Amino acid sequence: MQPGEEGIALVTYIPKERKEYGYVFDQFYLNTNDDQQPQKIIYLSANIIQDFSWMTEKDKKNAPKIVFKDSTTFDFGTIKQGEKIEHSFKFTNQGKNPLRILKVKASCGCTAVEPPQKDIKKNETSVIKAIFDSSGRKGPQYKTITVITNDPEHSQITLVIKGNVE
Fold first, then answer.
1. Which of 163, 139, 165 lies closest to 80 in space, CA to CA?
2. What whole-number distance in Å separates Cα of residue 95 and Cα of residue 31?
3. d(CA 44, CA 12)
4. Sheet of strand 125-133: strand arrangement
5. Hey, which residues does 66 pair with through a beta bridge?
């Protein structure tokens, strides 16, 4: 390209090759002959979701089904700074085929998650354990945990931990 000319860089992104679900970030490098900054960075963010459009009504009736026993929100009330709060979100697979937990990710480094085993059989119960560390936090807190499953009706669930830190 000549100075002042515009061009198009075509990037093809194939989510299947990423082998991950949910919100992802990637960066690509474009090498140029620019003397001052020869390497350009292209950032890409995407929310990779599953495609269930191929499923027939019979497939949907036989699909896994995640059902949380209690609320998907846990309010820990008011705690002192530095305390750790643990909560287990209990769920059951009420579907006919195994439920697969594909990804469990907290929105913040202050919240650790212990995902259950990957495959939960029909009528089997499991938990997603969350630990919120209030160290360095103050005031109202609202943390989310994203759970991605193979349940076509609930393929992405958001669990919430909230409360106040003194």
1. 165
2. 50
3. 11
4. 66-68, 84-93, 125-133, 111-114
5. 93
Q: DSSP secondary structure string, 36-96?
A: S--EEEEEEEEEE----TT--HHHHHTS--EEESS-SEEEEEEE-TT-EEEEEEEEEE-SS
User: Contact 58/41 with Cβ under 8 angstroms?
Assistant: no
Q: How far is CA 93 from the centre of its chain?
A: 19
Q: Which amino acid is at 153?
A: E
CB 28 within 8 A of CB 21: no
> Helix (H, G, I), strand (E, B), or coil: what is residue 18?
helix
Summarised one tens digit per residue, pLDDT across range 19-54 is 888 888 889 898 988 899 999 998 988 888 889 999
Give the tens place of pLDDT for each residue, 89-132: 999 999 999 999 999 999 989 999 987 778 999 999 999 999 99
- Cα dihedral 45, 50, 53, 57, rounded to 10, equals -150
Classify burial at 165, counting beta carbons within 10 Å of its beta carbon; exposed 0-12, middle 13-18, buried 19 or more.
Answer: buried
Query: What number of residues does the chain have?
Result: 166
